[in-house]
DNA sequence: CGATTATTTGATTTCGGTCAAAGTAAGTGG
DNA sequence: CCACTTACTTTGACCGAAATCAAATAATCG
């Protein structure tokens, strides 16, 4: 729990919230936070819960407070592609469109802080810094989407898996900064989700993970827990 | 050449510019346009010219006035993936980052209107509507990137080609709106570029185009010119 | 502990890639 | 205007990485 001078007059709800420090809410002063907090709801959703449905109307945006949210597109034949993953304290929502063009699901159990779409859009007008933060967030999402386009279009299955593990390590293990050689974390996605993210099948994902384990690049405990002793060795297999 | 009341006091350079109507410059009043126009340069680049290099410093942003710009990522072994295509009057540039994470090349001959990065970033602070337009543009790019992620990860070669032709038709042939059944246009990309965009090889692109021609879904003249008599028939093959 | 779901492993097939060659278009300079 | 070069595209034969089909094994949960 952080408690600094900026906490004065800040709604209880927001006082210890990461979104106020590193997320979009950081753009708001305590008065604006109070206004927004009146229509804000903090809630949990368990893994698998659909948060936004493709083609559905979006009345509320959210900040991800913990856990991982996956953004998916569905094609004919039930084929699915995950087109984005959101980690705390990411902003979840597509401003200026009432209808969603993709579906959002909780990949793990998640905590969200949601508020009415229109309240945020109104606040963006009177607080340019909020718009600025949102622009920064969306630019980051665009950078990430383009990195994955290159992976989806041109990397081999082995390279996709290596890139994926590195990306997760960087987002989940706080110790996986550039200065550290090792990382350990629980995968936030099932094999099926990883396959949908990388444009592969479950079987190929499994085989490639087994292969990396056989080559002592990673260790796997209980299917979900991954230990990487030498991040550079994994990075050498990412193909870029 | 448009000449309405809004043209009063507008720099000559901007008077007939589409970017002032549908692009980001539409957010600027004539005084701001005049300021920006002082450091603005209008120039042409021929097909193949590198406009921004990966890892290079970006000192200027641009509006695309005509032609098509491709945004590319390069992986090891010289593998390439096109991660975005920009048509007039799109904005070309990544605000708030001095170093580019991708390369931009003219896919066709292009006309650009460029201005210093810092001039635009400064203007964004004092003109929230400019930031708003930029946000809208980047949100559109993100939507498109995610559509292509689904195509790259989950569509077959045949579906990728069909989707690609539809996307180009919508962007280039003004008559290809939802109300029209037919479209005709010159492909702005070579077979090699199409392959790099769709994550395929030149040979596969060629074979799929030949197949669509054989099935009378498209006609091809002179390699580059495409005629689609029934857009719905092509859309039925796009896989979504 | 049994039932259900998730993951791994194995055998086989297939779509798209690779390699090779021929066909076409577009310049270029004599 | 035409031979000649050069680059682009198409077509064909073959190959291989990943998909599909099919069990077996491991984890999870009531």
**In order across it, which strands form the biggest sheet of chain A?**
1-8-3-6
Number of strands of chain A: 11
What proportion of the residues of chain A form beta strands (DSSP E)? 15-25%
Superfamily (CATH H level) name of the largest domain in chain A: Jelly Rolls
CATH class assignment of the largest domain in chain A = Mainly Beta
Main sheet overview of chain A: 4 strands, antiparallel
Termini Cα gap of chain A: 39 Å
- Uncertain residue ranges of chain A: none
Would you tell me the overall average pLDDT of chain A? 94
**Radius of gyration of chain A, rounded?**
19 Å
The H-and-E topology of chain A, N to C, reads as HHHEEEEEEEEHHHEHHEEH
Q: What does the overall shape of chain A look like?
A: globular
Number of domains as seen in the coordinates of chain A: 2
Q: How do you describe this structure in short?
A:
2 copies of one chain form a homodimer. Chain A is α+β, with helices and mostly antiparallel strands and 240 residues long. Chain A has helices spanning 12-15, 18-21, 30-38, 117-126, 128-154, 157-172, 191-198, 202-214, 231-235, and strands at 41-45, 50-52, 60-66, 68-74, 80-87, 91-92, 103-106, 110-116, 183-186, 218-221, 225-228.
């Amino acid at each position: 729990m952080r408690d600094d001078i900026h906490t004065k007059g800040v709604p209880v709800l927001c006082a210890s919230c990461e979104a106020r420090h590193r997320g979009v809410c950081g753009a708001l002063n305590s008065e604006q936070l109070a206004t927004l907090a009146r229509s804000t709801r903090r809630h949990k959703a368990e893994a698998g819960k659909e948060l936004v449905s493709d083609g559905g109307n979006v009345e509320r945006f959210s900040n991800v407070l913990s856990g991982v949210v996956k953004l998916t597109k569905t094609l004919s034949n039930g084929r699915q592609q995950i087109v984005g993953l959101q980690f705390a304290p990411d902003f979840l929502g597509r401003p200026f469109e009432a209808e969603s063009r993709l579906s959002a699901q909780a990949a793990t159990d998640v905590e969200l802080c949601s508020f009415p779409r229109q309240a945020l859009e109104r606040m963006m007008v009177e607080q340019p810094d909020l718009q600025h933060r949102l622009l920064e967030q969306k630019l980051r999402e665009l950078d990430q989407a383009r990195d994955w386009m290159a992976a989806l279009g041109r990397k081999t299955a082995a390279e996709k898996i290596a890139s994926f593990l590195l990306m997760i390590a960087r987002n989940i293990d706080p110790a996986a900064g550039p200065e550290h050689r090792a990382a350990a974390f629980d995968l936030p996605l099932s094999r099926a989700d990883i396959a949908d993210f990388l444009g592969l099948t479950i079987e190929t994902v499994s085989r490639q993970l087994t292969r990396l384990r056989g080559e002592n690049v990673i260790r796997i405990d209980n299917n979900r827990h991954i230990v990487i002793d030498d991040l550079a060795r994994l990075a050498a297999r990412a193909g870029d």
